[in-house]
Amino acid sequence: MSDHIDVHKVARLGALAIGADEVGAVGQKLNAIVGLFDDLAAINTDGIEPMAHPLDQVQRLRVDVVIEKDIHQYVQQIAPRVEAGLYLVPKVIE
Amino acid sequence: MTWETVIGLEVHAQLATKTKIFSGASTAFGALPNTQACLVDLGMPGVLPVLNKGVVDMAIRFGLAVGSSVAEKSVFARKNYFYPDLPKGYQISQFELPVVIGGQIHIELDGGVKKTINLTRAHLEEDAGKSLHEDFEGASGIDLNRAGTPLLEIVSEPEMRSPAEAVAYAKKLHELVQYLGICDGNMQEGSFRVDANISVRKVGAELGTRAEIKNVNSFKFLERAIMFEVERQIDIIEAGGAVVQETRLYDAAKDETRSMRSKADAMDYRYFPDPDLLPLIITPAMIEKVKGEMPELPDAKRTRFIEQYKLSDYDAMVLTGSREIADYYETVVAATGAKDPKIAANWVMGELNARLNADSLDVSESPVDASRMAGLVARILDNTISGKIAKDVFEIMWTSTDSADAIIEAKGLKQITDVGAIAAMVRGVIDQFPEQLAEYKGGRDKLFGFFVGEVMKATKGKANPGQVNQILKDELAK
Amino acid sequence: MNFHQMSMVQLAGKLQDKSVSSVELTQYFSDRMAKYDDQINGYITKTTELAMAQAQAADARRAAGETGLLLGMPLAHKDIFCTQDIITTCASKMLANFKAPYNATVVEKLNAVGMVTLGKTNMDEFAMGSTTENSAFGVTRNPWDTRAVPGGSSGGAAAVLAAGLAPIATGTDTGGSIRQPAAFCGVTGIKPTYGSVSRYGMIAYASSLDQGGPMGKTAEDCAHLLAAMAGFDERDSTSSEGERPDYVGSLNAPLTGLKVGLPKEYFGEGLSDEVRAATLATAAELEKLGATLVDVSLPNTEHAVPAYYVIAPAEASSNLSRYDGVRFGHRCDNPKDLNDLYTRSRSEGFGAEVKRRIMVGAYVLSAGYYDAYYLKAQRVRRLIKEDFMQAFEACDVILGPVAPTPAWKLGEKTSDPTAMYLADIYTIPVNLAGLPAIAMPAGFAGALPIGVQLIGNYFSEPRLLNVAHQFQQATDHHTKTPAAWA
Hints:
By secondary structure, chain B is α+β, with helices and mostly antiparallel strands.
């Protein structure tokens, strides 16, 4: 089942750039890791519910009251690029 | 060759909570950029979401209103993609297990044709921020105030067959969410956004390939966008081509739809349950509590107004046009002992509405509130003043805080209803105009109106018009 | 006075009887850090100036009549806990200059009781690793043998404890990251039940597995720190509601009647002889203390590694999407467009192992693979939990090795990630199930310490701490310190 992993595709999904010279080595390691998962297919899990959380708890609800203050000047001190209170990014084309 | 249009709508309604879906930051519209984006909204490392109870209550309210089943268990998932207005690199949304399943919206088309549109589902999710494209030397500015604003995405089945049906459905939903108090419905500010999935097919054929038109922000544009898109698709197919599944934008200025940079097929959103959030469990007790707080819905209210207040379909429709106007009307009727609900209806729909429109005010902002209005209508009903005088009183009330009674008293506007007094005045008028009397007697019946006018003038409009008519008729006949 | 050879509780006694002040103790450890940490590289950031100010404040509080056991106690935080206005790197170039504008709940709680922050300890980048070799700030060395790894990801914490560069430390454990470095460095550490310690402000690796916990010289030290760290936090939806158990009160309970389960799958192929011997010797010692040994089985143990390495990277790939160079963190120079900003910032900011896990995570969640990998792994996860529940029908605690071998050499496994992953087999099942487990020293293989772990049922930390404490009362493995740093 462990298909040859498409390094370019998973890199794109993860917004990572993998250089042409690295693709081979990276692919080899990724395929070795994915190879570990082959065993999963053989395990009988019929009727077993997927377990997303360790404890069977339910979502707690927060009262709808404003508790946060304006902190933009403080938090924007650590931002790479801001102007007029806005975070700047290369032009977004729609 | 007849083509059938198939339309399904996805409506994003921003829920009218005070705070965001997963943080305690304010959702108020129009704040300065990023002043309402807290650590959670900014996707800072290590910070965590906690679900807002208000959002859950509103989803339940919606579910009950459309007769759907409110899911006992629903799950928040992450939709993963990179975009500057999406700070965490994923949107928290409900995917496999939405909070609301099924439901119906009943629409009425021109000519009274009724149709039921089924809902597929409605699910909760967080809104994204905004990219501002004013030029920052080739850059875009990101404002994350909107990030995390709660949305209820309401998905219909593809059951609409014309732009008119789509608009009727969208309008009905728009009215409903406002009635329920779960969305302010402000389309300009993006509180209620419509995506339309449109395809065409030969009648009876399989569903055609659909295009999705994103973020239409007015009913007029919705209608135009669908009309344009249907024609475009038919043209393509008739020319031997095939419609491409894609996302399109409606350009109102050019009145056309155009393809957005196609990202749908390149996208693999990798939905999975958000491990920072636990399953949302809605208990029967939570549903019962919301049920107890449910407002009466528009259709039910309309039917009740017709039966209880003997109003016409039209009056009932106008008076239930919003929850505020209906409440206003019912307050007036209740305070005036429900003697003549039609008079109250005329005043709310007539004078009040006209005055509100002239001043661009919402009924909730009316300078004359329902109890003061009731005070005025009561004086009309008990014949203290005539409808005509009442309009003058209303004008004074609009710019003062005085009650109708105080104004009537101060200005001496009380209607004269003493038969003897009116008769005396009628005789005085007749004596004053012997020539007209002779002409009237000679057969010019139209002069009756002249005498009425003169009497009203003499009484400064305070005489009861019905009594004046009767007495005048008697005296002229003598 | 050799303060660095004393347990935290012993030091607390000295603070309480005022034979030493917090300022003196803080100065003592800061001096040792300055003198020795270059050889260990256990700290990414030393916060000596802040520590002295906090120590002064703590002394003032004690002078004003406060008596708290942790008041004025120096502490090392794993550099995964956000500390307001102090750089929190998570050992990543991505966050090399990240000054969080907030404190993690754990930091907030420990500040409140008057603890003193000596610095932030080294770790594997974003807690992804078992050796602390995946740090953008250099490897941490094992104080017992500086050619060996200290374990990971909380390798810095374990190393500074072993070298006497802090009396107590915080760590986090997603797949063994507290227990395995504790075992490799001869210290004690407990991974609490999932939901016991708030994750707010603790930089996420895999949200459904991550759990913070204490690391120290003794189980008793850990019990006291855990009591201060744990508690319901309304800012963490996965935080357990209600009171936490009394972690300290039952430390001295006798072990009579205790049933210790030995899972046969934890003693199979791949376990080194020294570790096997130390684990069995621990079992014998517990028997001597009144416990009964029972055989149990955890049949799905072998499936834990694949299940974990599907689930953890899946969550991580999504958790790490927020590092995009826009609001904080590393941003590449002169991005030519949006995509360039993302891919270059992230490729420059993340190390090789982090990138691998992001890609593996994206892969197992992607269309066509989700059911076969992600969902399947979540089903296996339940089987693993059910194994434990079954075992706890027959025993109170489970005893097993932490890692198949003692610490290996630096660089030995860096080129083979899968070999590294397979060494996590005994620690990972606990995280998948969300159970508590404590690692404690149990002997040596030559110069290198060996650790064993006790696994308990949900919220049974008091029992685990009690068993470990009683074991440590009867043995002296935990009192050994590496000679080079004496």
